[in-house]
Design brief:
By secondary structure, the protein is mainly β. It has four domains: about 90 residues, RNA Polymerase Alpha Subunit, Chain A, domain 2, CATH 2.170.120; about 90 residues, RNA Polymerase Alpha Subunit, Chain A, domain 2, CATH 2.170.120.40; about 80 residues, RNA Polymerase Alpha Subunit, Chain A, domain 2 (Beta Complex), CATH 2.170.120; about 80 residues, Beta Complex (RNA Polymerase Alpha Subunit, Chain A, domain 2), CATH 2.170.120. It has seven helices and 33 strands. The protein starts with a helix and ends with a strand. InterPro entries: c-di-AMP_regulator (IPR053154), YbbR (IPR012505). It comes from Bacillus salipaludis. This is CdaR family protein.
């Protein structure tokens, strides 16, 4: 063996064999990383990061800045390992430096720091138009707003109570100058028939009702809106207008609804009344009529607005009953009396046909009362007792009577 090792040719041949073996053990491809997926140190690549936050440096105590996007797109170019580290750690910062900016509108450049010097960064957008304004704080009174259409019929909303009723608003001077409305809007969806109280968010709007980007302290307030009943149930009065035609008497007028519900102010409801007016001047028979319900001043609504009236009439008839004898009442036993004129009377009766047609002379008691009279001739009023359902009239209203004293 020692002899072989001393042989120069043997050593050369052995070295050649070992070299061939070593060479064959190494992969021989033109692009090994392409197929094995292994990153070769120093390889260059490009990658884009979306939604990279932007940091803004400025005097937050005295200034308000607008126009800077919250996030930007960042494209990185460089070695694969450095890009992977930057992507995983996010140990860099995209920022805008406004520490020396003046008040007004200006274009500023977005910058990046704490990024590996092996990487090249492209920010999109690279520049932005910003507005730097003086920050001011003012106090405003809060108005309330809710959907009045949700009030149930017969109910009204009183004066809202807001606690606190003033808020402090902080923002850029140009926005503060635009403030026209500071509103607390109630989130109510159901019908309202009782007092409501809830927390409401504050909205700050300009005159065109655009929402302004300002800070409100406090951002919510408690709003209480008193709700009260403004309805009342009252009877419907019936008023007759005019005079019935000749021969017609109104027996009754009834309504299909006797009461109405009215809505109005508290003062108006105290003395409110409603009525229907029935013109009887043209009613000559039983009939029904649809009539409007008339309301008094201060009443805004009535229900029902129309009612149906049923009118019952009595037809009138006139009849003369003749030759009804006069009787004498109240005569003392010591006196005698004689009617000189008239001995009997005629009576004209007016009333419902059904009643008048049945009347006879016996249905009337025609008399004179002489209870307080002494001897002599007297002119005495003739009196009548008869059915209450009819009217009557005598052809003579007085009678001549002679009273004499009886002999003992």
């Amino acid at each position: 063996m020692d002899k072989l090792m001393d042989n120069r040719w043997f050593i050369k041949i052995l070295a050649l064999v070992l070299a061939v073996l070593l060479y064959s053990s190494v992969p021989h491809t033109t692009n090994s990383t392409k197929f094995t997926g292994v990153n070769v140190p120093g390889e260059q690549t490009t990658e884009t990061l979306n939604d990279v936050p932007v940091k803004v440096y400025y005097d937050t105590e005295n200034l308000v800045v607008s126009g800077i996007p919250n996030k930007v797109k960042l494209t990185l170019k460089g070695p694969v390992t450095h890009i992977q580290n930057a992507k995983a750690l996010r140990n860099f910062e995209v920022y805008v430096d406004l520490t020396k900016a003046k008040i007004g509108h200006q274009t500023v450049k977005l910058k990046i720091k704490d990024l590996s010097d092996k990487l090249k960064a492209t920010i999109k957008p690279s520049r932005v138009n910003v507005s730097v304004q003086e920050k001011i704080t003012q106090e405003y009174k809060v108005d309330t707003e809710f959907n009045q259409g949700l009030l149930q019929e017969g109910f009204a909303a009183g004066q809202p109570v807001v606690e606190p009723n003033k808020v402090k608003i902080t923002g850029a001077k140009n926005l503060i100058d635009r403030i026209s409305y500071v509103k607390a809007t109630l989130n109510v969806k159901d019908q309202i028939n009782k007092t409501i109280s809830q927390e409401a968010n504050i909205q700050v709007l300009d005159r065109d009702l655009n929402k302004l980007d300002v800070e409100v302290d406090p951002s919510t307030v408690r709003v209480t809106i008193p709700v009260k009943d403004i309805s009342k149930k009252v009877p419907i009065d019936i008023k007759q207008i005019g005079t019935p035609p000749s021969g017609v008497t109104i027996d009754s007028i009834t309504l299909d609804t006797k009461d109405a519900v009215i809505i109005g102010s508290e003062h108006a409801l105290k003395n409110a009344h409603v009525r229907v007016e029935v013109d009887v001047s043209k009613i000559d028979d039983n009939k029904t009529m649809d009539l409007p319900v008339i309301i008094s001043n201060g009443i805004t609504k009535v229900s029902p607005e129309m009612v149906t009236a049923t009118i019952v009439v009595k037809k009138q008839e006139e009849k003369t009953i003749s030759g009804i004898p006069l009787t004498i009442l109240g005569l003392s036993d010591q006196y005698s009396a004689e009617i000189n004129n008239p001995d009997n009377v005629d009576i004209t009766v007016n009333g419902p046909s059904s009643m008048v047609n049945k009347l006879k002379s016996k249905d009337f008691n025609v008399f004179i009362d002489v209870s307080n009279l002494k001897e002599g001739d007297h002119n005495v009023k003739i009196q009548v007792e008869g059915p209450s359902e009819v009217d009557w009239e005598l052809d003579q209203s007085r009678a001549n009577v002679t009273i004499t004293k009886n002999n003992a």
